[in-house]
Amino acid sequence: MRPWRIDSSRSRFWMKYLIFLASISLFGCWGGLPTDLLKLPKKVPGTADARAVMLQKKLANQGVQVVTIGQDYLIAIPSSLLFPSQSPRLTWQSYAVLNQVVAYLKQFRKIAVNVTAYSSQYGSTRREYALTLARAKVISRYLWSQSIESRFIFAEGAGREKPISAYLAGGDQSLNSRIEITFRDAII
Known about the structure:
Order of helices and strands: HHHEEHHEHEE
Number of domains: 2
Low-confidence stretches: 37-41
Strand content: 15-25%
CATH class of the largest domain: Alpha Beta
């Protein structure tokens, strides 16, 4: 007499089939999943689009540009609004601008924030990289101290790379001397 053998591929098929039927009958009784379970949160609780637009207008009035492309955001701040000429130390007036930037950042869910500092032509390339790295670190530390919702804040000094104006002279008054804060609005 031959012992009864279970074919493993058939048993897997029947197990999956039974699970499929059970899930159909279970969700069929409820009329499907509730629609509120299917929606993912888009914004941070307590925020509104109108507030984000108002904060964006306030930043624009101070000379800070906010560029949005889909879920990607770029906040460009002229260095002259935040730092004395060729210095990595914040001015007292810069805290008002940075606090508005923080308020704007708190409107979104984000995983990582990148702070990149750029400079105009000062003379020494090494000095430009050191200055921009120090500036990016100062801004990233301030954002971190203000508890913006982010897991990572990266600081990068880019020197005179990626100029936005052909006019390279002018120190911190040049358009090329800027701080760029970028992040992606994350749907979690």
